[in-house]
Write a structure and sequence with these properties.
This is Pseudouridine synthase. InterPro entries: PsdUridine_synth_cat_dom_sf, PsdUridine_synth_RluA-like_CS, PsdUridine_synth_RluC/D, PsdUridine_synth_RsuA/RluA, RluA_PseudoU_synthase, S4_RNA-bd, S4_RNA-bd_sf. It is built from eight helices and 16 strands. The chain is α+β, with helices and mostly antiparallel strands. The strands form three sheets. Strands 5, 6, 7, 8, 9, 10, 13, 14, 15 and 16 form a ten-stranded mixed beta sheet that branches.
């Protein structure tokens, strides 16, 4: 029987072959159960985590056989967090929009984090695992806490690997694409047609672990396509298709072109947000992940998953007529 090392010990963990392609931060979340994401970022930035003896970034993709240095961290004892509330369990159970043998998809409510950490004990994945004890469930991707909409969870490791390869535009699956469609209300009157925003994005961490994203020449390539569906009371209701999946991509691209997403407290227009709150009752970010299209098994099994616009956002649109 293997005795786990004491918290004061450094561990060298070999990455299993079935974890090949996983991001370093996600791998560490699995190794340091209960660690908040802000702590994961902190120990990576400070160089306490090493991959094959060298420093690495949180988004580094691991290969099978890599040696990861996991530093000692002080964590809460298992069970200290308790369990998700009954209301959160009920909300998550009701959010299911699709399930088969290898995937399930939910329509995540705004205000629920993708996973616990940074002051949040229970997110989507922890709550789903509490609903399905003993079942292996892994997040395929994330949504911002304030964004509502479609999230996919893998029930099988093979599906997780293939979908994550599609999400990161892996050359091994060149030719295969994943269609990501969002619905957003943005400030002002956008022009007709499709407005494509090709602007690199850079993420930097503020004190306390808060992420802030900006357009920067040294950032990662990022491409979004905005198309006006209709205009209401001086605002533009848009479909947004993204070809990359950067942190806060739609929100920052919308700000960059002068049409910030309505209700956005970080990148939006505070005065416009206040007017929309008073006039239409908009109390949160008007951004919804509406659909995903992809194919598994090398393109042979297509999926088209949808999450309808939530009632609170439909009500806002109705009030803007």
């Amino acid at each position: 029987m293997t005795v786990p090392p004491a918290p004061s010990q450094v561990r060298i963990v070999e990455v299993p072959e079935d974890r090949a392609g996983q991001r370093l931060d996600n791998f560490l979340l699995g190794q340091l159960k209960g660690a908040p994401k802000s702590l994961i970022y902190k120990i990576v930035r400070s160089g306490q985590v090493r991959v094959n003896g060298g420093r690495a970034k949180a988004d580094t993709r691991l290969a099978g056989g890599d040696q990861v240095r996991v530093p000692p961290v002080r964590l809460a004892e298992p069970g200290d967090k308790g369990a998700p509330s009954r209301s959160l369990l009920d909300i998550m159970a009701a959010s299911l929009v699709f399930e088969d043998a290898r995937l399930l998809a939910i329509s995540k409510p705004s205000g629920v984090a993708s996973h616990g950490g940074s002051g949040v004990s229970f997110g989507v994945i922890e709550t789903l695992r509490a609903l399905r004890p003993g079942q292996e469930l892994e997040l395929v991707h994330r949504l911002d806490r304030d964004t509502s909409g479609l999230m996919v969870v893998a029930k099988k490791r093979s599906a997780l690997r293939e979908l994550q390869a599609l999400m990161r535009e892996d050359p091994a699956v060149k030719g295969e694409v994943i269609g990501k469609r969002y619905l957003a209300l943005v400030a002002g009157r956008m022009p007709d047609g499709v407005m494509s925003v090709d602007a690199p994005l850079h993420v930097h961490m503020r004190q306390g672990g808060e992420r802030h994203v900006q357009v920067h020449p040294g950032g990662k390539p990022s491409l979004s396509h905005f198309r006006v569906l209709e205009r209401r009371a001086g605002q533009s209701y848009c479909e947004v298709r993204i070809e990359t999946g950067r942190t806060h991509q739609i929100r920052v691209h919308a700000q960059h072109i002068g049409h910030p997403v309505a209700g956005d407290p970080k990148y939006g227009d505070a005065e416009a947000n206040q007017r929309l709150r008073e006039q239409a009752g908009l109390k949160r970010l008007f951004l919804h992940a509406a659909s995903l299209e992809f194919a598994l098994d090398g393109g042979r099994v297509p999926y088209v998953l949808d999450a309808p616009l939530p009632e609170d956002l439909r009500t806002v649109l109705d009030r803007l007529l």
